Amino acid sequence: MASAIRTLLIINPGSRRGSEATLDEGVERLRSAGFEVEVYLSEGPEQSRRAVRERREQLELVIMAGGDGTISSMAQTLYECQLSLAILPLGTANDLARTLGVPQELNAAFDVIAANPRRRIDLGVVNDQYFFNVANLGLGVQVTEELTDEVKKQWGVFSYLKAFFAALLRRRQFRVRLTVDGQRQKLRSIQLAVGNGRYYGGGNVVRDCASIDDGLLSLYSVRPLGVWELLTLAPLLREGQYDLDHRVVTARGQRIEIETRPTGMSIHADGEPVTATPAQFHCIPGALEVVARENNAFETDRPML
Length: 305
Fold this sequence. Notes:
about 300 residues; alpha+beta; Rossmann fold; Tumour Suppressor Smad4; six-stranded antiparallel β-sheet; 10 helices; kinase; phospholipid metabolism; metal-binding
């Protein structure tokens, strides 16, 4: 008889959108499927990281129940402890879950975990800060700043659209000195993003050819544009089809260096502020094992905004 899969389920009560009954039923389903589950209610990222480190020798799998920021805060710890990750999407955007083909509906997400399909994914790193999805500066940071808890609560999945229009009024251009795998160029930008995963910002595609297990980072930079031009560009931004428009600069590589003027621009990764320019990015191929639906269709459960 196979031994039980020793599992720690970390729940972020602040991002909980599922009922306790649904979570309890899901935990019992996992136990029936051969998982030995400890449920841990965390008050914050440091407490979650400490809980994992203290149990690392007794664990095989960590299930993170929360949004992208909550999950991203655990990336470095999971990598250092070499523990597998599963996701219960309880946030607003749930972009990593979408990338991994994990359904947004909790019962279906528990079904995926119980089936236990595994794959290895890459991690992105910016100035020693780890991330799953995307790190950005410029307009994307302003969108995040507009995305308050009140906006999320009132607008739900449409909160990113609301925040985007509010951020348009605050957009500012900046200069960039960019180096991608040794190739240098200078440009002007109002939005620059470096993606390790595929989705960000509530279902936007960072690049239509991007995958979280391709060993590469995908960059795009939007040239300075007026509001109307940005709105006409929005459908391409949504689908990651940047190669179709001269207003967007794209690049792919394993190592990316960014210097800006003004310097010290804030960089957000997976929706959270993590560092500032100048910045050095790199990709760690196959860094983590995750529970993810095999041969997943990336468009599954994607909201239409």
